[in-house]
Design a protein that fits this description.
Elements (H helix, E strand, L loop, with lengths): L1 H6 L1 E6 L4 H13 L4 E5 L7 H7 L3 H6 L1 E3 L2 H4 L5 E5 L10 E3 H12 L4 E5 L8 H4 L4 E4 L11 H17 L14 H17 L11 H12 L3 H15 L8
């Protein structure tokens, strides 16, 4: 069961600017027994500097999946955790890295999960965090909390390894969570429905879509729940005529 959990975890690096950080992150991932590396629009990859710093983990670079968007990197994932070095004033649930690792490992017993890291300079954007269901922070020294990207990856991967190997995970069970791509289709359907009924003005959307995403992110929708909600949206767009019995 432990190996199945390791295999269901992917590390996603978004718009990494320094290829050396990709190589160092690959090394950190492999030392903790993980193997799935996703790169969203890296500035330079493949790159000799990345390979040099990966040392014995060059195989992870060779098998790394490169995507243009975070949504692509999260395809098939039932749960995504966004890492942040600073407090965000968003409605996401925020936990420390240890608690995030425990929650994610429980889900990874049966479905793929991801830990998402942002660019070195500014971290994850709010739009990228909207693709995640949980926000995690590493409780570092508040007077100097800046961590190198690869170091942050190492801490998170260590917490994941400990959560898995300590054997405190619940047995797999319960309903299947909706995957990221199913949620994205739901969000698109919801937005179009709100436009159709006049609730959302596409020319001045403000932050309605982002706020709705965060509501549903906290709910951690199951696959059947998404199907139910989309059925409601379909009938909202095309109401059936009332039938008298």
């Amino acid at each position: 069961m432990s190996q199945a959990i390791f295999n269901n975890i992917r590390i996603v690096l978004c718009q990494t600017s320094h290829p050396g950080n990709i190589g160092s992150a690959a090394r950190a991932i492999k030392t903790m027994g993980l193997q799935h590396l996703y790169l969203v629009k890296p500035d330079k990859f493949p790159d000799a500097h990345a390979t040099a710093l990966a040392t014995g983990a060059a195989d992870l670079l060779e098998s790394a999946i490169v995507t243009e968007t975070l949504s692509e990197a999260l395809t098939g994932c039932a749960f995504a955790v966004g890492l942040s070095a600073r407090k965000r004033y968003l409605s996401h649930e925020t936990v420390n890295a240890r608690e995030a690792a425990l929650q994610a490992s429980k889900i990874a017993a049966s479905q793929p999960v991801a830990f998402v890291f942002g660019t070195e300079m500014s971290g994850l954007s709010n739009a990228e965090l909207d693709c995640c269901q949980l926000l995690a922070m590493i409780p570092a020294n508040p007077e100097y909390s800046s961590l190198n990207l690869a170091a942050a990856v190492q801490v998170v991967c260590y917490e994941l390894r400990m959560a898995i190997l300590e054997g405190k995970l619940d047995a797999p069970g319960g309903m299947e969570l909706a995957t990221n791509d199913e949620l994205e289709r739901f969000y698109a359907h919801l937005e179009q429905t709100l436009i159709d009924i006049g609730y959302l003005n596409p020319k001045a959307p403000k932050k309605l879509s982002e706020r709705l995403r965060r509501i549903y992110a906290r709910a951690r929708l199951e696959k059947e729940e998404v199907n139910l909600l989309r059925g409601v949206l379909t009938l909202t767009q095309e109401p059936r005529k009332h039938t008298k019995y």
